[in-house]
Design a protein that fits this description.
Blueprint (H helix, E strand, L loop, with lengths): L2 H7 L2 E7 L4 E4 L1 H6 L7 E4 H5 L4 H17 L3 E8 L5 E15 L5 E11 L17 H19 L3 H10 L9 E8 L2 E8 L7 H4 L8 H8 L3 E3 L2 H7 L4 H5 L5 E9 L2 E10 L7 H38 L10 E8 L10 E7 L5 E8 L4 H19 L4 H17 L12 E8 L5 E7 L5 E3 L5 E3 L4 E2 L12 E5 L5 E5 L1 H5 L5 H12 L3 H4 L7 H14 L18 E8 L18 E7 L6 H12 L6 H21 L4 E8 L6 E8 L19 H8 L2 E6 L4 E8 L8
Parallel strand pairs: 16-19
Antiparallel strand pairs: 1-2, 1-6, 2-3, 4-5, 5-6, 7-8, 7-11, 9-10, 10-11, 12-22, 13-14, 14-15, 15-16, 16-20, 17-18, 17-21, 21-22, 23-24, 24-25, 25-27, 26-27
């Protein structure tokens, strides 16, 4: 009996599909199954394609391409249509793609296979009807969508492996997974699931030339399917003993390919038999492609994180050894825009004189160049300080340095030179004397021993790098025992849509909060908790309930440094059982060339008296201070030195304010007319102050007045 007769008896036809020429050759049985006359025929591809259901044609295209890529059989179910669009029958096609070369030299393929009719179940039987596009394929599509979404959201290699291990494939799910990488000429185990610790040892350092499925996949870039242990033992006898002990029945090894390069292999092992039908192979191949892309993204992200973390660690110094009588805490929070390092920095520098310097700064921008400039500038400032230069000289040299290195970028893609703000504080730990030089940076804030917070105005110059030869005046004041100084960048103030005023109000509420409520109590470590509270006020959940739009809380880098001088009420030592209320002091110099700082003097007095019982007395004190400082600038050639002190218990405090100048001319009473613009200073103090006077000094004089706190005005 001829082979053709046997095939016809079992309703099986033969066909040859030449993809290069676009022709299909059918025997008589194959022609009959396609709804054509039962005789051998050669037809153009378009004529045969018209006999298939459009949905099935699209699916068989993908199946054939997969079989060509893997060198396996292409199996599919096809619905045959008549000229009126009705389904005549359902057939199963099994074909083998063979490579051949077209006349023009292009490599192509042809399919040689069989077509067999599938018997439909009869009414009343228990045979299940399985349509071509049934529930299995719909669940497969849903699974691939979910798997793609989960793998796309994985941010690290460990997360990618956890997602891969949790995938439940429709109809068949592996119970053992392994991801192999390539390190030189050897395989490496990136991760595995469904195995015990140590099971990966025989495979962890295997050479790529080894007769092992994963190694062959890496070498060839083709998937390997092993439906049974017999297939595994027959194809890979050398490594079969390694796989035998795991008790698996079927295995699939698929290449992990990204941009045409095989970066590893993925093994899916099953404890139940899997035939690896075209649909199953299609699912596994799609998952392998998504897994490869997810691993590639995770690897790049981890490399960037490792780079930025290392850069951050190298640029953010330790605060160094403890300083007797002082406590220091610092925080650095980078912006959320990719790299975990930006242009903000802080530093503590031991000086040759036995003092130390605190530096905080902010280079313009949040990109890689800002981080690089920050590192260079930080090293330069540390070098100038270590040479023993004074604060003003350190910033002047740093400005020239930054201007010089940014000028070299003029021909690059960067938009232009950049600047940096900086605050440099030299501290004497024995006396608490601070010498401050400021380059366009926010002023420091002082938390006094009773919890009052004042902005400490300091003289300053332009940001570094704008004008190379810039002078930076120095401001001196004393950090009293029990006081804490805060230095910060503008990210701590303005993040979240705040301006300088509302941002400082937000921070002042944290600094002035009760120590027991805020967690910054007298026990050790209070300064560290206070630093955390300040950052949480900006980035924590509560930050969304403060003034300002609900903007991204990671829109700017944050650097903050806290310096506390140990003393009563600071929280660094043992608290007193019945402590006396400490004096509240502030000092400010208003230079002849800076009359605008009179407004700062008025603001200082209001902040100093923020809890004064009588608001009218506060207004009186502000008015007298404004008059006294203005008179010094108008009638003398020197600067005005303002010293204010409030002592006593709440409700019964005494306020004393002195304004000193270098002139020996004493004030005297005048009788200004109604339209006179001056001459009322003495009259104001006689009317508003409880007591006042003038104290001559060695050079110059000091004019002072006192107010005694009262809960209500006398006329109330």
């Amino acid at each position: 009996m001829r082979t053709e007769d046997v095939l016809a008896a079992i309703a099986t036809g033969l066909w040859r599909w030449d993809n290069a020429s676009g022709t299909v050759t059918l025997d008589s049985e194959a022609a009959r199954l396609l709804g054509l006359p039962a005789e051998p025929v050669e037809l153009p591809e378009v004529a045969v394609r018209s006999r298939f259901h459009p949905v099935d044609w699209n699916e068989i295209n993908g199946i054939v391409n997969l079989a060509v890529a893997e060198g396996t059989l292409a199996e599919a179910r096809l619905r045959i249509m008549d000229e009126d669009g009705r389904v005549l029958r359902t057939v199963r096609s099994r074909s083998k793609p063979l490579e051949n070369r077209a006349p023009d030299g292009r490599l192509d393929y042809e399919l040689i296979g069989t077509i067999q009719e599938i018997a439909e179940p009869q009414p009343g039987t228990t045979a299940a009807h399985t349509p071509i596009t049934g529930d299995w394929r719909r669940s497969r599509e849903a699974f691939l969508l979910d798997a793609g979404r989960a793998l796309a959201e994985a941010r690290s290699t460990a997360e990618v492996l956890r997602v891969a291990a949790s995938l439940s494939m429709p109809g068949f799910s592996p119970d053992g997974l392994a991801v192999f990488g390539v390190a030189g000429e050897r395989l490496s185990i990136i991760g595995h699931h469904g195995h015990d610790a140590g099971d990966e040892s025989p495979f962890a350092d295997m050479r790529v030339e080894t007769d092992y499925p994963a190694a062959e996949v890496v070498r060839t870039g083709r998937a390997i399917y092993l439906p049974s242990p017999e297939d595994y033992k027959r194809r890979f006898p050398a490594t079969w003993p390694l796989a035998q002990r795991f008790g698996r029945i079927s295995w699939a090894f698929l290449p992990l390919i990204v941009a045409g390069r095989t970066m590893g292999a993925w093994m899916a092992a099953f404890k139940h038999p899997v035939s690896f039908s075209p649909d199953e192979r299609s699912v596994l191949t799609t998952v392998a492609r998504m897994l490869a892309q997810a691993l590639q993204r995770a690897g790049v992200a981890e490399s960037e994180r490792e780079l930025s973390t290392g850069l951050q660690r190298s640029m953010m110094p330790q605060l160094g050894p403890e300083i007797p009588g002082m406590r220091i805490a610092a925080r650095y929070v980078p912006t959320g825009g990719g790299l975990q390092v930006g242009g903000d920095w802080y530093d503590m520098i031991p000086l040759p004189s036995g003092r130390f310097a605190l530096v905080i700064g902010d280079v313009q921008g949040h990109d890689v160049r800002a981080a690089g400039l920050m590192g260079q500038l930080r090293i330069a400032v540390r070098a100038y300080a270590s040479e023993g230069h004074r604060p003003d000289a350190v910033l002047s040299r740093a400005s020239r340095f930054l201007a010089g290195i940014t000028d070299s970028y003029e021909d690059s893609d960067d938009p232009g030179p950049r600047f940096a703000t900086c605050l440099y504080v030299e501290c004497d730990p024995r006396t608490g004397m601070l010498e401050v030089a400021r380059a366009g940076h926010p002023d420091p804030a002082i938390r006094m021993t009773d919890g009052t917070v004042l902005m400490r105005p300091t003289a300053g110059g332009l940001p570094l790098g704008i004008v190379p030869d810039t002078d930076y005046p120095t401001t001196r004041f004393t950090l009293e025992p029990g006081e804490t100084m805060m230095l910060c960048t503008d990210g701590l103030i303005e993040t979240g849509g705040h301006d300088l005023d509302t941002g400082w109000a937000r921070l002042r509420a944290i600094l002035e909060s009760d120590p027991e409520e805020s967690g910054a109590g007298p026990e050790p470590g209070h300064l560290e908790r206070l630093a955390d509270l300040l950052v949480q006020a900006v980035h924590g959940p509560s930050s969304h309930h403060t003034t300002g739009p609900l903007a991204d809380r990671r829109e700017d880098d944050i650097a903050v440094v806290l310096l506390c001088r140990e003393g009563e009420g600071c929280g660094c030592g043992t608290p007193l059982l019945h402590p006396a209320r400490p004096a509240r002091r502030t000092m400010l110099t208003v230079a002849q060339a800076e009359p605008e700082r009179i407004a700062g003097a008025r603001r200082q007095i209001r902040e100093l008296l923020h809890d004064w019982a009588d608001g009218e007395q506060v207004d009186s004190a502000v008015l007298m201070v404004s008059e006294m400082v203005t008179n010094v600038l108008m009638h003398t050639d020197g600067d005005a030195l303002l010293v204010a002190e409030a002592v006593g218990e709440l409700g019964a405090r005494r306020l004393r304010i002195e304004v000193a100048d270098a002139s020996d001319e004493l004030p005297h009473r005048r009788h200004p007319g109604e339209m006179a613009s001056s001459g009322r200073g003495v009259l104001l103090m006689e009317m508003l102050a409880d007591t006042w006077g003038v104290d001559p000094q060695g050079e110059g004089k000091s004019i002072w007045f006192e107010l005694y706190e009262r809960s209500k005005s006398p006329d109330a």
